[in-house]
Design goal:
three-stranded antiparallel β-sheet, disordered C terminus, single chain, mainly alpha, 6 helices
């Protein structure tokens, strides 16, 4: 203070006590001293992540790791958005599997009960049950062994188709075909739905293979033709036997 008379009264830094204050009455220093100001607290240091250190409420950081790694959702390709179209399959990927061919051909087993059915007795019983002058009028036809075999085969084919569709779906995914046609569509009791769907989706993923779909359509056409032929022959024989002058069996 070069000119003490020009400095107003007040608290100023104590020239004798570093860090302290002292009252200046406008003329001279007094014996009134203030307490030294406490040192500013050091900036908080972020604790090291380690065993037992909690990162946030309810989240404990694993031992020896930093921020938890973000887990990739199942079925997602790294670097791709879930809204992006699935990437094409690797070049040369085949969509033909043994399971899809079993799905295509298994329904042919349903023709076995048709071939074993005694159509002659079945139709004659139905005709007699509809004739009011026949003693068997009103009676229903008996449940035959061929009928039972048809029921059993139907359930077995249905269950096997669902299982084979799941195996086919897993095989296509393992070959690099992303998001193949879902196997759950095999629960629809028409195997052609899954066969067509998986062939179309595989084609879009870059793994074409129309042979299973073509064979499945041909198989269905064959089934219709065989059924028509069997019914036509059975009704023709039954009609000849029920006509006057017919030769009974």
């Amino acid at each position: 203070m070069s000119d003490p008379q020009s400095i107003p009264a007040g608290w100023y830094p104590d020239p004798e006590v570093p860090g302290g204050t002292r009252w200046w009455n406008g003329i001279a220093w007094t014996e009134q001293r203030g307490v030294a100001a406490p040192a500013a607290p050091a900036a908080p240091v972020a604790p090291q992540q380690g065993y037992g250190t909690q990162q946030g409420y309810g989240q404990q950081q694993p031992y020896g790791q930093g921020a938890p790694a973000q887990q990739q959702p199942y079925g997602m390709v790294p670097g791709r958005s879930p809204f992006d179209a699935p990437a094409p399959a690797p070049a040369g990927t085949s969509s033909s599997t043994w399971s899809i061919w079993l799905i295509v051909l298994l329904p042919l087993l349903a023709l076995i009960p048709l071939a074993l059915q005694d159509w002659d007795a079945l139709i004659q019983g139905a005709v007699a049950a509809s004739d009011p002058y026949d003693p068997l009028f009103g009676e229903t036809t008996a449940f035959t062994a061929a009928d039972l075999l048809g029921w059993v085969l139907g359930f077995l084919i249905y269950g096997a188709t669902v299982l084979l569709a799941w195996l086919d779906w897993r095989t296509l995914a393992a070959r690099g075909i992303q998001s193949p046609f879902h196997w759950a569509f095999a629960f629809i009791p028409v195997s052609l739905v899954y066969v067509i769907g998986r062939c179309v989706v595989a084609k879009r993923r870059g793994a074409p293979g129309w042979a299973p779909m073509a064979v499945a359509i041909a198989r269905m056409a064959l089934e219709v033709v065989v059924q028509i032929v069997i019914f036509a022959i059975a009704f023709s024989v039954a009609f000849e036997q029920t006509m006057p002058g017919g030769i009974p069996s």
